[in-house]
Design brief:
single chain, binds pyridoxal-5'-phosphate, 7-stranded mixed β-sheet, 14 helices, alpha/beta
């Protein structure tokens, strides 16, 4: 098909051409004397995206899920107990990873479409008078349902219970797109990957630990090899890695950090909000319900949309991809066939939002959903026009 596929999925996201060029390079000596300045610069700048000055950032050749393992095995003892909130496919998988690594996992289950409930977390921790629970596991932005939870409220719930638990937050589809404040929110481990807000190909696992979590690293008794932060910290201190790092992706990360720092997180957060509002306006104009249970918890990076009874979301996605060259996210696990997801994060412009929504409403119509063609696009365009930032002053 001529043109370019629009990735309207919640990751991997569209990679800016300048990042592709930054990664398209000959290999270099990762033990060379030039390398430490490069590595130290990346690890330093990464911290600001996680919202920390006190914490420490790590980069692995891995995907986001691997950082669940890395966070757990570097801070917990064998057989430790954790509390996991399950509210969608990714929070379920995070809890599952802890089970498979041999930890004892207490779960709080909420409806898919709801947020992490601070009151239930507080109650569970109050009941744990012996302080057996060592960490609370939550997903900040549940990509499967398009729901964002209030991380600071969960930290307040832990503190209100007078409980010493660590707080581990999966920010795979929020960090570098939505507000994320490791220090201010009292997060102890934050987890992400390269292929969402960082606008890079998949392949880097990114992890940031608070001083409290870092203090656990030398003592944790969980077995660890590749993910051992003792080895990685020691190498990173000297500006190197204990293994051969994914060099092109590190150059991509450098380009991504340069772009993020130049734009500034407040502008990036505002852009994501504006685009999300436009997408939500389109979905409302089509008359389709969101998976998110309440307007206060809708995600600014991904919108999960229910299709009418009798229509399969897989058909909508297939038509969007093959006829209109737009990739949509599928409904995951129990939402399979019932939901499609629009990813509006990363390197997305206004025209991509409007064009993508045009393709979605054509695909919905082709699949048999009754809607007025153009209604979603008009609703989104109206929001985008009204909220467009002022034009920079004209070139003289
Ligand atoms: C919230 C969340 N956590 C974890 C993951 C898994 O990340 P990865 O596919 O990079 O392993 C994803 C992937 O979409 C996600 O959205």
């Amino acid at each position: 098909m001529p043109g370019r596929t629009l990735l309207f999925i919640p990751g991997p996201t569209n990679v800016p051409d300048e990042f592709l060029r930054a990664m398209d390079r000959a290999m270099e000596d990762h033990r060379g004397s030039h390398f430490p300045a490069f590595v130290h610069g990346i690890l330093h700048d990464l911290k600001s995206v996680f919202g920390t000055t006190a914490g420490r950032a790590f980069v692995f050749a891995a995907s986001g899920s691997a950082m669940w393992d890395a966070a757990l095995v570097n801070t917990l003892d064998v057989g430790d107990r954790v509390l996991a909130v399950r509210k969608g496919q990714f929070s379920t998988l995070f809890a599952d990873a802890a089970v498979r690594l041999g930890y004892r996992v207490d779960t709080i289950d909420v409806e898919w479409g709801e947020a992490t409930p601070p009151d239930a977390v507080e109650a569970a921790l109050r009941a744990d008078t012996a302080h057996g629970i060592k960490a609370v596991l939550m997903v900040h932005n549940e990509t499967a349902t398009g729901v964002t939870s209030d991380v600071a409220a969960i930290r307040r719930a832990i503190d209100a219970a007078g409980h010493p638990s660590l707080l581990f937050v999966d920010g795979v589809s929020s960090i570098a797109s939505l507000r994320f404040e490791l220090d201010a929110w009292g997060v102890d481990a934050a987890i992400t990957g390269s292929q969402k807000g960082f606008m890079l190909p998949p392949g880097l696992g990114l992890l940031c630990l608070s001083p409290k979590a870092l203090a656990r690293v030398p003592h944790a008794t969980s077995p660890r090899a590749f993910f051992d932060l003792r080895a990685l910290s020691a190498s990173n201190d000297t500006g190197y890695f204990p293994y051969t790092p994914p060099l092109p992706l590190l150059h991509g990360l450098r380009a991504s950090l340069d772009r993020i720092l130049a734009d500034g997180m407040p502008a990036i957060i505002a852009r994501h909000h504006r685009h999300a509002e436009a997408v939500r306006a389109a979905v409302a104009a089509w008359g389709l319900p969101l998976v998110a249970a309440r307007p206060e918890i809708v995600s600014d990076t991904v919108t999960a949309v229910r299709v009418p009874e009798g229509i399969s979301s897989a058909t909508v996605m297939d038509i969007a991809a093959r006829r209109y060259n737009v990739a949509l996210g599928s409904g995951l696990a129990r939402l399979s066939g019932k939901v499609f997801r629009i990813g509006h994060l990363g390197a997305i412009d206004d025209w991509m939002i409007v064009g993508g929504l045009g393709a979605v409403e054509m695909a919905l119509t082709d699949a048999g959903v009754a809607l007025t063609l153009g209604s979603g696009v008009a609703a989104a365009a109206d929001i985008l026009r009204r909220t467009a930032p002022p034009l920079p002053s004209p070139i003289a």
